[in-house]
Amino acid sequence: MKKYLILFAFTFPLSIWAQYLLPNEEIMYSFETKAGKKMTLVKDKKNEYIQYRFGSKNHVDMEFPTERTKDSWKKFKYNSYLRGGGKQNAGMELNYLTFTNNGYQYQLFRTYYAEDESYSTGITVTDSKGKETNIAGIYKTIKGCMCHIEESGLIEKEDTGL
Fold first, then answer.
1. Is there a contact between 105 and 96 (Cβ–Cβ < 8 Å)?
2. Can you tell me the distance from the alpha carbon of 133 to that of 141, in angstroms, rounded to the nearest whole number?
3. Interatomic CA distance for residues 147 and 44, integer angstroms
4. pTM listed for this prediction
5. Coil/strand/helix, residue 4
6. Strand 156-157, strand 77-83: pairing
7. Is 154 helix (H, G, I), strand (E, B) or coil?
8. Cβ count near 158 (within 10 Å)
9. C-alpha distances in angstroms, 57 versus 20, 37, 82, 126?
10. Which terminal residue of the chain has fewer beta carbons within 10 Å of its beta carbon, N or C?
11. In Å, what is the CA distance from 138 to each residue of 18, 66, 135?
């Protein structure tokens, strides 16, 4: 009986994580939120699809897109801006990934500002009337890098004038 309890103790956390990462996938970017939720952006290891997942540690509340196909890459837009030069040049690094689902726009972000050495990550959700809801992420829990999204060449880079 003791062996089964030990085995269960080790496999239970893996089963929770498995909801967010399938065997054929790798994390592009993920973080936990201050409200105890988890956001994970994954891609198939062979670049067959990309998918956003959000929910509690025990349950994925939302997956976008629901279909795991090559067309999934076209449902996201990426934008970034980098200004070096440190504090004296108001250096910054801004990364944004957006998609629209059921009339809501979701914008994942990761930012750094050299002037006050502040880092942030999270999700901004905008409804059809323009009302924004910000979901703050915990920067220390980040896995992956949004910078690799652009390197993949599979998501359209959007120029919003940053």
1. no
2. 21
3. 17
4. 0.83
5. helix
6. parallel
7. coil
8. 14
9. 9, 6, 33, 24
10. N
11. 21, 26, 10
Transcribe 102-120 into DSSP letters. Answer: TTEEEEEEEEEETTTTEEE
Residues in the chain: 162
Peptide bond into 65 cis (omega under 30): yes
Residue 160, token pair as written in the block: 């919003």
Q: What is the DSSP letter of 87?
A: G
Provide the pLDDT confidence category of residue 153 given band limits of 50, 70 and 90. confident
Which tokens go with 31? 């973080």
Tell me 67's DSSP state: S
For residue 144, give Cα distances in angstroms to 40, 62, 110, 122. Answer: 10, 20, 11, 14
31: number of Cβ within 10 Å: 23
> How confident is the model over 117-152, as pLDDT tens digits?
999 999 999 999 999 999 999 999 999 998 888 777
Of 52, 58, 18, 21, nearest to 37 (Cα)? 58
